[in-house]
Write a structure and sequence with these properties.
Layout: H1 9-25, E1 33-44, E2 52-64, E3 67-70, E4 74-80, E5 85-94, E6 97-98, E7 106-107, E8 120-132, E9 135-144, E10 152-163, E11 167-178, H2 180-187, H3 191-197, E12 207-220, E13 225-236, H4 238-241, E14 250-261
Parallel strand pairs: 6-7
Antiparallel strand pairs: 1-2, 1-14, 2-3, 3-4, 4-5, 5-8, 8-9, 9-10, 10-11, 11-12, 12-13, 13-14
């Protein structure tokens, strides 16, 4: 699903992928750093929408050893071992979804009568294996803490077909899963929502619901300046695509960010 844990998610997607790439190059504990930037993304208004919008937002990331703050992931820490295994735990925030057009969160007037999905605090745990300098596997679970919206899960792999001193190309593909409550929250239509919106009732089951693939190119102009470009593609399985609020099961995103690291 195309969700936004923070508004910076719109511009940090590519930056987060680049951070994963860095693990392939250096398995030691990262040094302290602070990164600022600006990014832009063109994306669907919500998962399943056939309408699009463009957002501009700041990029912020800070790290001190194993601890970090990331505009996409939230506040957390990561632990890495010499054999390539790693663990990451974060506390983040999801902005939910609104039933009207919005410039800073998921939402569209096509959802009028569906009601808003509350913003929530969430926690994520990721376990992965950096098998080689160019290949990694990861499993991740994201669970809400302040509202019962259900759990989201994904299994992903990342391949680096090209990397040198200034450029890195990364291809990441993830299988998406959600429990029944998560699927009902974001793709279902209950009786009350059906009466208000006019959409037919729909109750999806939990399980696999899509695949998300990102192709990222990062270029380092200098030790401080860098740029990141990313093209994303999401395909929704029948669990999600059969929902009456899903108007397009194949969705693309395009993102770019200019970054400065102190």
């Amino acid at each position: 699903m195309i969700t936004r844990k923070l508004i910076m998610h719109m511009t940090c997607v590519a930056f987060a992928t680049t951070a994963t790439v860095a693990w392939a190059e250096d398995s030691s504990t990262p040094a302290s750093s602070f990164t600022l930037g600006v990014g832009v993304q063109n994306a669907p208004k919500y998962s399943g929408s056939d309408k699009r919008h463009t957002l501009i937002a700041p990029v912020i990331q800070a790290r001190d050893g194993a601890f970090f703050f990331d505009g996409l992931k939230g506040i957390g820490y990561d632990l890495q071992s010499d054999n390539g295994l790693y663990l990451e735990h974060t506390l983040g925030y999801s902005l939910g979804r609104t039933e009207k057009d919005s410039t800073w969160r998921d939402g569209s007037k096509e959802l009028k009568g569906m009601g808003s999905i509350k913003a929530v605090m969430n926690t994520s745990v990721a376990v992965g294996w950096q098998a080689t300098s160019w290949f990694s596997l990861e499993g991740k679970a994201t669970l809400p803490l302040t509202d019962g919206q259900g759990g989201q899960y994904q299994a992903s792999l990342t391949v680096l077909p090209w990397q040198d001193e200034t450029d890195t190309v990364a291809l990441q593909s993830a299988a998406l899963f959600g429990d029944s409550r998560y699927m009902q929250t974001f793709y279902g239509v209950n009786t009350a929502q059906s009466e208000r919106s006019g959409y037919a009732r729909y109750q999806p089951g939990g399980g696999f619901y899509g695949i998300n693939t990102n192709l990222t190119w990062s270029h380092q102009f200098s030790p401080h300046w860098a740029t990141v470009l990313i093209g994303g593609y999401t395909w929704l399985d029948d669990h999600a695509a059969d929902s009456p609020i899903v108007f397009r099961r194949n969705q693309a995103t395009a993102s770019a960010a200019l970054l400065y690291t102190f």
